[in-house]
Structure formats: structure tokens, C-alpha cells
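Input C-alpha cells:
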């Protein structure tokens, strides 16, 4: 017990050294800010989600109907030179349809579904692709989004803009507080993503489609030393 008390006294003595009058202020002060950047670009690729769904008395019949039209859909896409790597199955399912009209639940048939995601790299042909899909028997359309095939350069520009924004914010805050901004202590990227901004409608084949712009965003967190 005596040894423990002695060690505690020595530790407290060490911590309190240099805290009295005339001792230099070694307190480290920091300023943390968050900056954001955005870059807009014209999209050069579309991703559409479409498929086939059918209802029948049995699961087998429902799935056979879906398989036949899904095969026709894939053939129509191949005929338009859509590469196999740009077509991916998203959902393949068959499920019962329940009849809740009576007190006892019963199955009133089955619904089968086959949904695929299609990347269209030639935007002027987007209307033709969608028209061919409808003609081949596609009766479900789950969405359309525009993007860019190679976002790396746009992402780099967005990061640079985010860093510049953070540095400008830090400089403004330091000036308002009457302190001098020191070197960067930490720099962390907080993530970013592309967002479609619909600006104007452009007719693609027989369908009026608004391609608009795609915005790539980035966000960073920066910490600076503050010089008194």
C-alpha cells in the first residue's frame, strides 16, 4: 500500500510540472471543417430495369410463360448489339397469390417474374432498346437512371473542389476568430455519389427521354492546427 501511494504522488507531481505561473502554454488547438464539391457532366450511359411477369393457375405454367417471353426479350436485346455483360438478371421468382375473401386463406394462382437490368451505352438508341423490349413482351418497367461509364476523372475533380471548399471555410473561420491557420493535421474523405439532375427533354427514337445531367459529389473532413 505504501508503494502504491508513493507512485501516485510521483505521478501527480509529474503532471503538474510546468502548469504554474510563467510556464509555457502547451495546449494544442485545432479547427475541424467539412467541405463539399460537385461536378456536373452529361451522361453517356443509361441503366434500365425491366422484365416479364405472368399469372397462371399453376406455378409451372406461370414460369413457362415468363421463360418464353424472357427468352424473346434477351434475343431482342442481343439483336440490338447489347453485349451480354450489359444484361444481368435481377430477380427470378414464382410466388402464390392468396385469396383472402373467405375465412380460410387459399391459393388463387401463381405469379412468376423475371426482371433484368440493362446497360445502354449508346444513348441515342435508348428509345429503340425500350421499344424492342416492349415488343418482345416486357410488361414490367422498374426504373431508368443515367450515369457515366468512367466517373474516375469526375470524382477526382469533385474531391479537389471539396478540399478547396474546406480550406476556404477554415480560412474564413480562423480570420473571424483572430487566429492563424496552421498545417493540416487530418484529411478524410467522407464519400460521394452521382445524382441525376433532369434538365431538358431529348427525343430518343420514338420516346421522349430527359437525359439531363449527372452530378458527382464528394465530401471531405479536414483538421488544422491553430497558431495563437
Amino acid at each position: 500500500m505504501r508503494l502504491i501511494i508513493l507512485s501516485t504522488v510521483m505521478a501527480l507531481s509529474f503532471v503538474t510540472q510546468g502548469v504554474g505561473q510563467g510556464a509555457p502554454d502547451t495546449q494544442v488547438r485545432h479547427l475541424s471543417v467539412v467541405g463539399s464539391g460537385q461536378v456536373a457532366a452529361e451522361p453517356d450511359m443509361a441503366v434500365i430495369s425491366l422484365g416479364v411477369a405472368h399469372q397462371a393457375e399453376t406455378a409451372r405454367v406461370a414460369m413457362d410463360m415468363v421463360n418464353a417471353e424472357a427468352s424473346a426479350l434477351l434475343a431482342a436485346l442481343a439483336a440490338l448489339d447489347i453485349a451480354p455483360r450489359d444484361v444481368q438478371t435481377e430477380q427470378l421468382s414464382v410466388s402464390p397469390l392468396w385469396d383472402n375473401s373467405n375465412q380460410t386463406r387459399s391459393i388463387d394462382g401463381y405469379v412468376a417474374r423475371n426482371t433484368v437490368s440493362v446497360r445502354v451505352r449508346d444513348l441515342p438508341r435508348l428509345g429503340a432498346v425500350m421499344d424492342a423490349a416492349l415488343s418482345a413482351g416486357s410488361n414490367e418497367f422498374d426504373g431508368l437512371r443515367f450515369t457515366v461509364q468512367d466517373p474516375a476523372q469526375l470524382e477526382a475533380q469533385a474531391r479537389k473542389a471539396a478540399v478547396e471548399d474546406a480550406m476556404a471555410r477554415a480560412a474564413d473561420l480562423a480570420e473571424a476568430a483572430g487566429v492563424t491557420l496552421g498545417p493540416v493535421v487530418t484529411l478524410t474523405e467522407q464519400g460521394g455519389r452521382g445524382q441525376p439532375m433532369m434538365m431538358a427533354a431529348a427525343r430518343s427514337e420514338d420516346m421522349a427521354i430527359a437525359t439531363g445531367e449527372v452530378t458527382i459529389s464528394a465530401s471531405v473532413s479536414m483538421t488544422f492546427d491553430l497558431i495563437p
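The longest helix spans residues 152-177. Residues 25-42+151-227 form a domain with the Translation Initiation Factor IF3 fold (CATH 3.30.110.170).
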